[in-house]
Amino acid sequence: MECAACLKFLTLISDFRGGFIVFGCFSPSFNFLWLFLLFAFGLKLLRSIDPRNGFSYRKGFDLAFHSKVASFRTKIDYVEEDERTECFAEEDDEFDVLALRRLVRNERRRAVGAQLELEKERMAAASAADEAMAMILRLQNEKSSSEMDAKQYRRVAEQKQEYDREVIQSLQWIIMKHEYERSLLEEKLELCRQQLQRCLRRDELEELDAALISLGSTSDCGLDEEDELKMGFASPAACVQTKVFQDGLWTE
């Protein structure tokens, strides 16, 4: 800075007319040449001085220059680090986006698979419900048909029981009638025997008894239905009303 002040002072002096002889005697071109020589001499002088014992302005300039270079380098490093972090962040973001897309794709596949499984389960449940409903309807039909058959068999059994009861009652009445007629015939036979005893002899009476006994045995073995009807001994089948089983009902 002192050298610059000296040069400025010399230029100011060269502008005046009453200065040194050198600046007053020559033209401006020679003044410019003179200033150039002085400037070269000053630079040579500065270079010949030891850097360790030189002027303080060079050291300050170097320190400022190095500090600016260091700050500039740190800024460059910061910028590069920011760019690198931004690049890494972008790569991380891209990786996260790809991972999220892959995760969403997997979740969609799982959801589609779950929907397919649910659809299969629903169809299986619907088919099972249809089968169960068909089985229930079939069982209800079988139950209704079984109930109808049971009612019909019960009605047939009741009619058969009623018919058997009527047959038994008719047979009992026939037996009672036969017993009554037999008692009447025995009484008549006893009266006839008493009358014959009065009229016939003993040997004739014995022959008549033997003939009656043989006649009774032959009549018991050889009488047909017409003779029994004529004699009043009708069979139970003739006295009971005949019934025919048609379509599950007994008809007369």
From TrEMBL:
Residues 95-193 form the GTD-binding domain. The chain crosses the membrane at residues 20-43. It is found in: Membrane. InterPro entries: GTD-bd. Keywords: Membrane, Transmembrane, Transmembrane helix. GO terms for molecular function: myosin XI tail binding. The keyword Transmembrane helix applies. The keyword RNA-binding does not apply. It comes from the Eukaryota. Its main location: membrane. GO terms for cellular component: membrane. This is GTD-binding domain-containing protein.
